[in-house]
Design a protein that fits this description.
Layout lengths: L3 H18 L1 E7 L3 E9 L20 E10 L3 E2 L2 E2 L2 H19 L5 E6 L5 E10 L7 H9 L10 E13 L2 E4 L9 E12 H13 L3 E7 H9 L2 H6 L1 E6 L4 E7 L2 E8 L3 H12 L3 H11 L12 E5 L5 H4 E5 H26 L8 E5 L8 H9 L2 E4 L18 H11 L17 H14 L1
Parallel strand pairs: 1-6, 6-11, 12-17, 17-18
Antiparallel strand pairs: 1-2, 2-3, 4-5, 7-10, 8-9, 8-10, 12-13, 13-14, 15-16
Helix pairs in contact: 1-13, 2-4, 5-12, 7-8, 7-10, 10-11
């Protein structure tokens, strides 16, 4: 199905070994910040996860023992733009997290936005040998899915079975051990731009780190920001980052759609910088302290001082009203939300039984955004924060760390993916497996 099959299996094995040794790090490579958390596993909480059906489900409990965040360098639209600057930033943030944890980390799990994700819904059907469904039958039905030709310039990032049906009984989470004749599955496959993935892999390799897993920030943000009922009944998570806005749709506790809008909070900052003729750093500060998207009568009288250091006294001592600032910010935020609305409509979001929308990410903290989103998206909208994780510093509990916290959940309680099963050899030619092994050797 993809050259990433063997390397993804190798990363899963590497992740499992690192977790058994007790320490692993998660890395969120974003446009505005790069965050790193070091996790220690204490060997408790070995209850089986109800979400997974594979051997990786139900891992041990963990605690955050090291954390650090640094301003991102060399990343645009969620993709690496300048390799050297990104490498330097990753080295710095990982070393600082290791220093806080007082332990060395060799394996990291990374997530990123951007890379033009595309979702596919696949289905497969087989006849069960011996009537009792076994591990090999699940592998065969996943291999039977008719994979579209998604192009040689793309790679599969996630391939998750979201539903099983045995004879006429649908909605099964784990069909193994049950009696039936015909096994059917529905699988969600997410592909991304191959170059963006290879750049991230190469950058982490240059930092003397082993990549033990890779994920889409749209997926992991939904894991941390959506509550259990929302993941079960159907909800969309919109992660408004600095350079890209990721969106994912969950149903039956599985992601069924993901996409990215190549606009984010940095574009709002850029509009303020150009509109008010101030440096980017000043525009970011003004946006943080005085920004908003819903104007009131008081905003005409609330004045904001624009301090500068150009040498022109009149230019450096200007003031603007908060209403003018809102007038600059609102059109860009509306544009982002309109793009999100178009992606949700294309995915058929209105057909879900529950149409809850959760806004998270650093850009979601703009005052009044939930009200504006309700008008544009026309659904139930709430602001979401990542769930609490044991040992997480208070500074890392805000919406901007939804993807980072979601990486912890992705690492410790992973859902089953296509490469967790031993697929039949006759499904793949030697040429395909040979290319996969070659890709793995070149990139690790």
């Amino acid at each position: 199905m993809t050259e990433l099959y063997q390397s993804q299996r190798a990363m899963r094995a590497m992740r499992k070994a690192a977790m058994q040794r007790g320490v692993i790090a998660v890395l969120d490579v974003g446009t505005s910040k790069i965050a790193c958390l070091v996790l220690r596993f204490d060997g408790t909480d070995r209850l089986a996860s109800v979400e997974g059906i594979g051997s990786m489900a139900g891992q041990s409990g963990f605690r955050v023992i090291g954390a650090n965040t640094i301003m991102s360098r060399g990343v645009k639209f969620g993709e690496i733009d300048t390799m050297q600057e990104t490498e330097r930033a990753i080295r710095t943030v990982v070393q600082a997290a290791q220093k806080m944890a007082k332990i060395r980390v060799d394996h990291v799990i990374a997530c990123f936005a951007g890379a033009e994700p595309r979702s596919y819904g696949l289905d497969g059907q087989i006849e069960v040998d011996g009537q009792v469904v076994g591990e090999q039958d699940v592998a065969r039905v996943l291999a039977a899915c008719d994979v579209p030709d998604y192009g040689s310039d793309r790679e599969v990032l996630h391939a998750q079975p979201v539903n099983f049906a045995l004879d006429h009984r649908s909605g099964l989470g784990d069909p193994r051990g049950q009696v039936g004749n015909v096994l059917t599955t529905d699988m969600h496959m997410l592909t991304v731009d191959k170059v963006a993935v290879q750049n991230l892999v190469h950058c982490i390799k240059r930092c003397d780190l082993e990549l033990a897993g890779i994920a889409s920030s749209a997926y992991v943000s939904g894991l941390s920001a959506l509550v259990e009922d929302e993941q079960e009944l159907g909800a969309a998570c919109i992660d408004m980052g600095g350079g890209a806005t990721s969106l994912s749709i969950f149903m039956k506790k599985h992601m069924i759609f993901a996409d990215t809008v190549r606009m984010g909070g940095d574009h709002v900052t850029g509009d303020i910088s150009m509109g008010l003729q101030v440096p980017t750093a000043t525009a970011e500060r003004i946006k943080t302290f005085y920004g908003g998207v819903m104007a009131t009568g008081m905003d005409d009288r609330e004045m904001i001082e624009l301090s500068g250091d150009t040498g022109d006294w009149e230019h450096d001592r200007r003031t603007v009203s908060r209403a003018e600032l809102i007038g600059i910010m609102r059109p860009r935020v509306e544009e982002i939300l309109e793009e999100v609305r178009a992606r949700l409509d294309a995915a058929g979001f209105e057909h879900l039984p529950s149409q809850q929308i959760v806004l998270t990410g650093g850009g979601s903290q703009i005052p009044g955004l939930d009200g504006l989103a309700t008008k544009i998206l026309g659904q139930q909208v709430r602001l979401g924060r990542p769930m609490r994780v044991h040992g997480l510093p208070q500074a890392a509990t805000g919406p901007g760390f939804a993807a980072t916290v979601g990486m912890c959940l992705f690492a410790t309680h992973p859902q089953d993916e296509w490469w967790d099963f031993d697929l039949p050899v006759d499904r793949y030619t030697n040429r395909t497996l040979g290319r996969a092994v070659k890709w793995f050797r070149e990139n690790w």
